[in-house]
């Protein structure tokens, strides 16, 4: 079985809830970047042992949070020796606006994964974009490069939309299925 780590930062709990859904679908372990942008004890070792790293961050000012970026810069230590080469990577984000520039956040995560010599797994799910589509349909937000969720700015993590969370769960499952095939 592949070792999957869901690495994420969350300022106010929304991305954490999304990370839990991704981990549920993937059968992976959560690894949180803290409010100071640091990993807990053993975090770097967990990443070194993982063969799949799914990255999550809220979208803040059109990109990853500074805490996530601090992690990314610190990962240059692994980059120097291409220690994460050929791991699978995937990404997810959450923000307040329907668009909110979430694509920029996923693009940044993709670039980070490519710098590490990784292999990227996208969402692999059609968008729900017909007139009859419902906000809680799978992939209503119409992403392709990763999972995205939208949480209105006055809504707490407990009230995140079930369709976005189910999309995140199925995204986790897809990454796990891809990891199993990649390993075979
Ligand atoms: C500093 C800051 C910047 C933000 N920038 C954006 C943004 O660019 N686009 C957007 O749609 N929402 C933006 N938001 C809203 C957050 O993405 C949203 O509240 C999200 O649910 C927070 O996730 P979290 O609870 O995991 O921190 C911003 C929030 C903060 C605090």
TrEMBL record:
It comes from the Bacteria. Residues 4-149 form the Flavodoxin-like domain. Keywords: Flavoprotein, FMN. The keyword Flavoprotein applies. The keyword Flavoprotein applies. The lineage of its organism: Bacteria, Pseudomonadati, Pseudomonadota, Betaproteobacteria, Burkholderiales. Its cofactor is FMN. One of its GO terms (cellular component) is membrane. Pfam families: FMN_red (PF03358). GO terms for molecular function: electron transfer activity; FMN binding; NAD(P)H dehydrogenase (quinone) activity. This is Flavoprotein WrbA.
């Amino acid at each position: 079985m592949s070792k999957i780590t869901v690495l994420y930062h969350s300022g106010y709990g929304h991305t954490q809830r999304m990370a839990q859904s991704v981990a549920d679908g993937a059968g992976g372990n959560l690894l949180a970047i803290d409010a100071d942008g640091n990993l807990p004890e053993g975090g770097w070792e967990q990443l070194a042992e993982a063969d799949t790293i799914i990255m999550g961050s809220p979208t803040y000012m059109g990109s990853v949070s500074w805490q996530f970026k601090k992690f990314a810069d610190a990962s240059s230590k692994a980059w120097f020796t291409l220690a994460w080469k050929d791991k699978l990577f995937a990404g997810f984000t959450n923000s307040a606006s329907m668009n909110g520039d979430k694509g920029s956040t996923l693009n940044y995560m993709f670039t980070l994964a490519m710098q590490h010599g990784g292999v990227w797994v996208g969402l692999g799910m059609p968008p729900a974009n017909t007139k009859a589509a419902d906000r809680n349909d799978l992939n209503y937000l119409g992403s392709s490069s990763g999972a995205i969720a939208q949480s209105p700015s006055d809504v707490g993590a407990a009230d995140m939309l079930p369709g976005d969370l189910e999309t995140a769960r199925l995204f986790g499952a897809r990454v796990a299925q891809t990891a199993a095939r990649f390993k075979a």
